[in-house]
Design a protein that fits this description.
18 helices; mainly alpha; 0% strand; disordered C terminus; 2 domains; disordered N terminus; Growth Hormone, Chain: A
């Protein structure tokens, strides 16, 4: 009995280390990502940039991220997510301080491009690793991990604001954050697992037409990518236009106007942190349409109500509706049969980033032609599409299932 009990104890302990490593990387990604945003006005003033020039420079990060995601789709099957997490985490921590050292518009764009590239590579790699950990532990984890990212982003935003208040330079701040984060999360990544292998073909060598392994542009990948695009577009539009709508259209004070996106972000954190239990109890194809339906009804009522309180509540409902979309879609992409988890997540993640980047300017163009209220009406239209797509998507009909026993994975892969 003693011999059987001791390995189980060690297996559980190591399983917790696997989860702790993934949590640390998600938290670090969000922490560094959000910590520099408060310094943007400072960088703009230091380089004497116009609004247009700043907008051009800020495109460097998403362009770099999408480029890296597409490249990571090819690298992940060869190197594995553990090595990719380690390499991209090192680059992410090292490239951040370069932003504060940029002395011109081209240098700022180049620094943001490099930082965004490592950011995008780390994003895909850590989500691929999360799929492996989900399989090892046999239950949904992705929602909670993205909740940890949101907590890290909140902490980063607070630290960045404090840094600006005390006059701490951006490079110094990012360096002070990167060193302990790299030492802690980097050490924990040595406990990570190799990726899950694509599902094998059925015996006999032939793959029936109905069960052919998906390609990069298979229907499953495209549907998941479109869902991620729609969800991220709603998120990007809320981040950039919530306060503008409350301030300009509803005449809210500056302090109250900021509560729109605050309600959205807070709702996302709460739902994501409770999402693991929710998805373990109910099927994905039932949970996501219901939450997206709440977003549709709540946000529409907020727009139609035309009052500050209802509008803020509407943004909160929108946060509830899209909170689980990205983590669940990433998890589903990582389980597609016959396709490397890293490849599928790279494509879906790139679609999400494109939606996040395209959302704000699209709402801006629609608002110029009509009004902000009418332009924001695009968001409940997208959540209706998410209701239909998540209810019908074949890739979302299979919930997380246990992979090989965790103790077997630990014995095979964590020995040094």
């Amino acid at each position: 009995m003693t011999r059987l009990w001791r390995p189980q104890r060690g297996a559980g302990s190591t399983s917790r280390w696997l989860l702790a490593a993934t949590v640390a990387v998600f938290f670090t990604h969000g922490l560094l990502f959000a910590s520099w945003t408060a310094h943007i006005p400072e960088v703009k003033a230091r380089l004497d940039l116009t609004d247009g020039a700043l907008g051009l420079a800020l495109l460097g990060a998403p362009v770099g991220s999408v480029s890296a995601m597409l490249a990571t789709a090819r690298l992940l099957p060869k190197l594995g997510s553990r090595r990719m997490v380690q390499a991209s985490l090192l680059g992410y921590c090292a490239a951040g301080p370069l932003i504060g050292l940029a002395g011109s518009l081209p240098m700022l764009f180049a620094a943001l491009y490099a930082w965004g590239a490592f950011q995008g590579a780390l994003d895909v790699s850590m989500n691929t690793q999360a799929v492996a950990v989900e399989r090892a532990r046999g239950r949904p984890l992705m929602s909670g991990l993205h909740g940890c990212w949101s907590i890290g982003a909140l902490a980063g935003a607070v630290i960045g604001t404090a840094g600006v208040a005390i006059g701490l330079p951006l490079s110094s701040q990012l360096l002070l954050l990167a060193v302990p984060a790299l030492l802690t999360a980097g050490w924990l990544t040595t406990r990570m697992l190799p990726d899950a292998s694509p599902a094998a073909r059925p015996a006999g060598g032939q793959t029936p037409a109905s069960r052919r392994p998906p390609s990069w542009l298979s229907r499953s990948v495209v549907v998941l990518g479109l869902i991620a695009f729609a969800s991220s577009l709603c998120e990007g539009a809320s981040a950039d236009w919530a306060s503008v709508y409350l301030r300009g259209s509803l005449n809210a004070s500056a302090a109250i106007a900021g509560l729109g996106y605050t309600a959205f972000a807070a709702a996302m954190v709460v739902v994501r942190l409770s999402g693991n239990k929710l998805l373990a109890r109910f099927r994905v194809r039932r949970v996501l349409p219901v939450l997206a339906g709440i977003a549709t009804a709540g946000f529409t009522a907020g727009l139609v109500g035309g009052a500050t309180v209802t509008a803020i509540a509407g943004f909160g409902c929108l946060g509830i509706g899209v909170a689980l979309i990205i983590p669940t879609v990433f998890s589903a992409a990582g389980r597609l049969p016959g396709l490397s988890p890293g490849t599928a997540i790279s494509i879906v993640s790139a679609c999400g980033w494109i939606g996040f980047v395209c959302g704000p300017p699209l709402i801006g163009e629609l608002a110029s032609a009509t009004s902000i209220a009418v332009a924001l009406g695009l968001l409940p239209a997208l959540t209706i599409a998410i209701v239909i797509a998540t209810a019908r998507a074949t890739a979302l009909r299979s919930d997380v299932r246990p992979g090989p026993p965790t103790s077997d994975l630990i014995e095979r892969f964590t020995r040094r």
